[in-house]
Predict the structure.
Amino acid sequence: MSEYKIRKGKEIAFTISITILTFLGILPLFHIIATVFVNGLPVITKESFTFLTGTFSNGGIGPAIAGTFILIFLSSLIGLPVALLVGVYAYEYPNSIIGKATETLLQIMLEFPTILVGVFAMSIIAIPMGTYSAFAGAFALAIILMPYVAVYTQEAMRQIPFTYREASFGLGLSRIKVIFRILVPLSKRGILTGVLIGMAKVAGETAPLLFTIGGLYESYPVSVTKPVGAVPLLIYTLVQSPSKGNHRMAWGASLILLLIFLLIFIPIRVSLKEVKL
Amino acid sequence: MNKYAIETKDLKIYYGRKEIIKGINLRIPKHTIFAIMGPSGCGKSTLLRAFNRLLELNKDARIEGEVLVFGKNIYAHNVNPINVRREIGMVFQYPNPFPHLTIYDNVALGLKLNNLVKNKDEMNKRVRWALEKASLWEEVKDRLWRYPACLSGGQKQRLVIARTLALKPKILLMDEPTANIDPVGTRNIEKLLFELKKDYTIVLVTHKPAQAARTSDYVGFLYLGKIIEVGQTKNVFKKPKNELTKKYVTGILV
Amino acid sequence: MFRFFTLFTGGRKMKPCFNKIFKSVRRIDTFQIITLPAVIFVFLLFVLMLFVYFYNALPAFIREGLAVYFKNIWQASEEPGKEYYGLIAAIWGTVYTSMIAILIALPISIAYSVFVIDYVPKKLKNIFIIVSDMMAGLPTIIYGIWGVFALVPFLQKYIMTPLYKNLSFIPIFSYPPVTGYSYFSAGVLLGIMVTPFASAVIREAYQMIPFTYREAAISLGLTRYEATKILLGYIKPAIFSGMILAFGRAVGETVAVSLIIGNTFNLSPSLFAPGYTISSLIANQFGNAYIYRHMLPVLYAGGLSLFIIGLIVNIVGLYLLRRWQENVRI
């Protein structure tokens, strides 16, 4: 075989393997979505109202959904202000030692094992309080939420053309006013994206909730200092039980969780060019 | 005495180790249009930003010498740059009204954040006054609540001028204000400058000698960090004393 | 006041010093007063976290020293004197499954990056990227439930059992895949989960290769395959860094892994054996650890090791990536 044919052969083999590997990498997502729909849809459509609002013994996951929303809300309350301040600091002082250290710390926290955050929250909040609580869970989630929002804030503000900075300072304003009254509002779209992505991520987290919220599925939560349930945690518990009925509930809950995730994630992702993982 | 709006005394500007402006002594008379012209990249914009202490936004920049505004050195250590910038307004090369604010809010911004007006009424009056002074009121009075995106380049730049005028500065610094605007818009702005000259001192940086010739009373030719020649515009252009000036003005030196 | 000083200190020399002090005092503006506390708070929180783990693990260190990381034994007992714990099985499981994960992630993330940038028409490119980002953000419990009910049965039936039947003389295939919960399944699921993270890093690096290098490769008459090989060599540090970051992710994953690894104390090199990872151990045992006096500190010790592994891996990965980016930017 001529050398050219060998090279050509390698080229074709390469193209084929690249294609196959890529699709191997992409395929699981579609299979997962399909599986969740196939298994979850019958459960939800059977008696959707009861499923979405009823308590567990009535075949519903209402308290879990309520719990998830409470946790998202509470963790945002705790985490967003800190995230904004940290992100703005990292934007304004990118070259100082503290600024660089902050950026590094944020990157580390983005990937940090969430189980460790959960156990930490348990140690310093649930144990002293003597009880599982929504607050402990929200605290853990806030720690996980914070780096996402901070990094998105920093990136969004970095996109602002320098001329707007000049114009703002040129009006004779102090740094604090320039940043918080002009530049932050100017980048609110990017910041909002970060907030939504952070919330989507936090809504789906399980490990931080294992030892902080306790679980509450027979009644609706009424207090943040008492145990609460959440959809991911419920799924985790149900999957481990031997009962087939529980497994069905788990699929139904998974579908709800998947829908929440897709509903937040897709619109954001489509309207944005790049996403920090 | 206070004859001059701006006076520099042996002003030197460094970026890191590089000397950009090499010892300049300028005297800019009040209520004139003073043009600074020269080839691109020789420090005109840098020099301009030394006048309102906007240069400090760049951490590598360093200044030696004095800049006297109405007789007072703005680089003295008890001077707050923020106050300096309220007295001196700036218009930039790219029309940069804040895109996320309405036309009204753009003009009102400086007033609001500097707490310069007490109530809504006064605010409305000031905004209208600023827009009228910038020759923009007639064109936007019915769409104050719309965003700057609906304006042409020339209108955006006049909006920026209005934004600056609202603070009632005494000096206006213009950094190549018509560089990115079509000829008609440019003409409008140049006409506006003649009007504004009565109440303000204007320092105009431009890389088009023709613009300096058209609009200014005095002109300084900045080349490689030094003022080569300065004087009344008609003299500098008709009878340039320096060879370099002659070359620049006739278009050989670009 | 100033003049008073200059009389004593020789005037001119003091002026620059005063200037510096004035400037640094003025530099602490209200902006810093508001934002710096938040930054300090975050740093302190992180340090507190490390401290909490260390403090709670201390009893284990006092009782058994560092041997707690190297023994393979898990004997819980109501009598404190008879409790013996060792984490080596969990550490082994963590490392083993994560290695499997990046062995899977490596070829796929590279192939994906090359495919998306070189082969896909522009209009479809964004779709591929969105899919990858979705996989990165998908709640891990969904990966878990899919793993339990779809992936594991599939792997057990079509890959593990045939391999065991025919190749069990090879040590890594020697464990009977009864349920399918094993290092292998966990590794495969982790691989699927962390590939998008590696892909993001590699894809961005591959995209950033200056066009002149591509032109040069093609002008030399190379086939696409050969040109790609060269370009990939150019971004090797980024690939390496992407793998390290993926490893860090895999190491920390808890829920999905704990559902399919089998949660058994094993120290086996066999792929099909069930095992433990540090994170799944914590998830599994923490709940009932209160009953036993000495288990809790050991679990914290495990957490501490995970903390440190995660920290080191992330710092190294980020450092390499940054250094490469700085050296290579043109």
Observations:
- Residues 41 and 224 of chain B are 9 Å apart (CA to CA).
